[in-house]
């Protein structure tokens, strides 16, 4: 159950992180190059990445707490 919650948190957090990162890239590119550009589907990529990384990090921290 703890792993499932970590995956859900990773998905939601990664998606929000991807939206924020995509917006930041767009703002910087307009400022520097006067033309907006970015990475297509960045929120989905970061959501998938965080859905994998958050349970791994949680498992490592849980094993350190038990020692």
From TrEMBL:
The UniProt transmembrane annotation reads 7-30, 42-59
Task: Please provide the record's keywords in A-Z order.
Answer: Membrane, Transmembrane, Transmembrane helix
InterPro entries assigned:
DUF5957 (IPR046001)
> Is the keyword Transmembrane helix assigned to this protein?
yes
Pfam families according to UniProt: DUF5957
> What name does UniProt use for this protein?
DUF5957 family protein
